[in-house]
Specification:
This protein is α+β, with helices and mostly antiparallel strands and 307 residues long. Helices cover 61% and strands 11% of the residues.
Length: 307
């Protein structure tokens, strides 16, 4: 006989209303100043401004995608989507990371062209527009700051805005250098420096999203310690087929099998296993209790015998 039980922490009830409002405001600010920087870049001839405007365009797309994801996860689960729409936020984070990579590649290519063929830059226009862009990015970052750790999707949107803030600061620095020294190469060189920061952010975001899609155990869960905790429950003789994965940010699930041959101990063992697993920050816990004869796969490498 096998006994199976599942527990969850009610994550489905989490409200995303604040996230939607924050993303909406950030998107509006980004769209307005993207247009300002695009015009300023064309008038001044600054690659740093044009690169930052292109980056803000990608930011707008990323924020719109994040806004859509934050909206759709609020829909109730139905039919075959037993976890609802939570994974949409991970897909949005994956796309945002890919967009950051595309922006980075574009900046590097254009900067290389500018180094080989320098252009005249109007630093007065460049300084004004870059300063306005900096203020806009500070405002957008402040709007998203309080929600940045809610999930991977919002973290990706926040990273876009922060990297754009760095772009505006780089444009200001380039304008000052050119104005004081006449060294026009400062514009493409600072754009390249910005691309390195973008590369780091995009790779980190992509790695986190891929980890979730591959259903890797989250970094805060020590699998060895978890299995030891379960195996140490009174009545449990061994555990096997233990899996831990992230459904979406803040929603971690675990499933596993535990051999408990004494039927009288099965319910207390199940309750203690659930309590211990919850201590690892895991909200959804599914455990199948088995007698020795019911244990399938106990001799596989995933088996963890009681010490």
């Amino acid at each position: 006989m096998a006994v199976q039980a599942s527990y969850h922490d009610g994550h489905e009830g989490h409200s995303h209303g604040g996230s939607v409002r924050a993303l909406s405001w950030a998107l509006g600010v980004t769209l307005v100043f993207m247009a300002v920087e695009a015009v300023g870049g064309l008038v001044s001839g600054s690659l740093a401004l044009l690169a930052d405007a292109a980056h803000m365009l990608m930011d707008a797309a990323a924020l719109a995608l994040a806004l859509f994801a934050a909206w759709i996860v609020r829909r109730p689960r139905a039919g075959a989507r037993t976890y609802g729409w939570y994974r949409v936020e991970i897909l949005a984070a994956l796309v945002n990371g890919a967009l950051l990579l595309a922006v980075t590649a574009g900046i590097v290519v254009e900067a290389a062209h500018r180094l080989m063929a320098p252009v005249t830059i109007r630093t007065d226009v460049m300084l004004v527009v870059a300063s306005l862009g900096t203020l806009a990015n500070i405002a957008a970052a402040a709007i998203l700051h309080g929600s940045r750790d809610e999930n991977l999707n919002l973290r990706g949107a926040y990273l876009h805005v922060l990297s754009d803030l760095l772009g505006s600061l780089a444009a200001i620095a380039a304008a000052l250098v050119i104005r004081l020294t006449g060294w026009v190469a400062a514009d493409p060189l600072l754009s390249m420096a910005l691309s390195v920061l973008l590369l780091v952010s995009s790779v980190r975001l992509l790695w986190q999203a891929v980890d979730v899609l591959l259903e890797a155990a989250p970094r805060h869960v020590d699998m060895g310690a978890l299995q030891e905790a379960v195996a140490g429950v009174p009545g449990v003789e061994r555990v096997h087929d233990v899996h831990v994965w992230t459904v979406a940010s803040g929603l971690v699930a675990m499933s596993g099998h535990a051999v408990v041959t004494d039927l009288a101990r099965q319910q207390p063992a199940l309750e203690e296993i659930t309590r211990r697993v919850r201590g690892f920050g895991i909200g959804h816990v599914t455990v199948q209790l088995e007698k020795e004869g019911d244990c399938v796969g106990c001799d596989t490498p995933t088996t963890f015998p009681l010490a």
